[in-house]
Structure formats: C-alpha cells, structure tokens
Amino acid sequence: MNYTVPEPKIFACTQSEELAEKIAKHYGTDLGKVTFSTYSDGEFQPSFEESVRGARVFIIGSTFPNSDHLMQMLLMLDAAKRASARHITAVLPYFGWARQDRKDKPRVPIGAKLIAKMLEVAGATRIITMDLHADQIQGFFEKPVDHLFASTVFLPYLRKLNLDNLMIASPDMGGSKRAYAYSKFLECDVVICYKQRKKANVISHMELIGDVTGKNVVLVDDMVDTAGTLTKAAEVMMEKGALSVRAICTHPILSGQAYERIENSPLEELIVTDSIPLRQKSSKIKVVSCAHLFADVMQRVQNNTSISSKFLM
C-alpha cells in the first residue's frame, strides 16, 4: 500500500501574519485558516479551521514582547498536537526572551531555557529560528533546532552598496564573532566597540578598539532595542574620522525612544529584517525581507534535504 506524505500546512500567529504571508507565497502555498476567539478579559483561544491530522505543520510567530505573542505560539502548538499533526515546527523568526540566557547575578531566571522547555512541552517537534542572541540557546532544546543566519540576506545588500574602504564593526565584545564572520566574506577589517553600562540599556562609557579613519563603517548586531548603543557607536566613530556609519541589525525591536534616536543620529541607514514588524516608518530604516530564506529552509525540512548551504557563518 502506497502512502503519500501530505503537503505541509502553514499557519501564522497574528503578530507575524504579514511575514507569514510572504513566506507562504515564496513556499508556493496559502496560509492555513485559523481563527482566534477572545474573551472580554483578554483571554484568547486559537482554532484551526481545517484538518491537520497526519500533516507537517509550520506555525510562524515571533515571540517579542508582550507575552501574548509567546502565548499565541504555545496555544497553537498545543492545538496542533491535540489535532494529531504528524510534525509540528515552531518557526520563530525572532526568539524572544533570549537575553536571559544565563545567570549573570544571583536569584534571576534563565528565561531562554524556560521558553525552550515551554515550546517543547506545548508540542513543538522542531524549531526554526534566526540569529539567536546567543548560540548556546540551541542547547536548551532537546528537539532539532535550525538556527539560520540573516547574513544570507544582508550580504547581497551590502555588496550592492559597493562601499570603498569598508570596515565591519561590532557594537560590543560579545558580537565580535559575528563581525569577524562578515569581514571574512567581505574581505575587510574589523573594529570593536568596548562599552560599559550603568544598567540595562544605559551606557556609561564607550571606546573603540581599532582605527576607523577614512572608513565606511557597517555596524553588525543581532538586534536593536532602544538604539542607544548603535547611535552612541555611530557618534564615536564619526568623531574618530569615519566617512560614514551604517548599521545592520537582524531584529528591529525598537522600543522607547529608538526611532527618535535613529532619526537624530549620524547613521546613514539602519538595515533590518522583517522578523519583527516595524511600529512606524523611518526614512533611515531599510527592511530586507527574510521570507525567502525561511520558505526555502521549510521546503528543505519537508523534503528531508540538507540546509547547510544556508549557513554562511
């Protein structure tokens, strides 16, 4: 008796509907039908409006705050599990709570590991995500994790700029590995920013390790939150003789006064992906879609083929 593997079904959490529609289009299918019922107190319940029995299900949703976005993903994973889906892949373009990846002081949680366990308990049999804040977060999962790199969409954009005297920069010591990976492919030098913080999101002091005189600098980071570090780094680099400063940040969290800081900064442009939808438009922010990257990897997962060619770092 021949058994035909059912075509996968792709569903979206509400916070990532726009990106999910692009992914489904690149994949060559339509988004599955899901509805949300909401109670007067804010509690909500997802419902798949089509059968997922025996199918491979992809559920797309970035888990940036508020916590309702994470809760949507968890409830949809549980619904798919209870509806007898064969494989359930949580597609998290942005894996939220990732900055809590270790105990850096007493009596604090390791939030990233807690989220990993919650996703698995809810029903995820595989995770696809992009540019985790820390690579070791993959080890918090007992299920397979496909950790994609946004460099596959950013590098072609950078090459098209044809910048002379290009230099890659990391806004902190922790991002030096990412910066060196970009510099390897672009065959250019690297400068590192050394910063000291008073508290979270507040920088007290910043120094440069390297010379940016006469260089077109591109700062590379995994996320931009308040944009304090990026704009401070851009100011310091321009003061040190840089010709121009751009920034590449995968996940545009952009909270607080981030938009205002970016507009008033010496940054030529901030290049981001659509892993998180922008709250407002900005003349300095350029969005490069990651939809084709996720669609391609999802097709390879469905067909059980290698995805190693998607790892440029």
From TrEMBL:
GO terms for biological process: 5-phosphoribose 1-diphosphate biosynthetic process; purine nucleotide biosynthetic process; ribonucleoside monophosphate biosynthetic process. Residues 9-123 form the Ribose-phosphate pyrophosphokinase N-terminal domain. Its EC number is 2.7.6.1. It is an enzyme of class 2 (transferase). It comes from the Bacteria. It catalyses: D-ribose 5-phosphate + ATP = 5-phospho-alpha-D-ribose 1-diphosphate + AMP + H(+). This is ribose-phosphate diphosphokinase. The lineage of its organism: Bacteria, Pseudomonadati, Bacteroidota, Flavobacteriia, Flavobacteriales. Coiled coil: none annotated. It comes from Kordia antarctica. The gene is prs_2. GO terms for molecular function: ATP binding; kinase activity; magnesium ion binding; ribose phosphate diphosphokinase activity. Keywords: ATP-binding, Cytoplasm, Kinase, Magnesium, Metal-binding, Nucleotide biosynthesis, Nucleotide-binding, Transferase. One of its GO terms (cellular component) is ribose phosphate diphosphokinase complex.
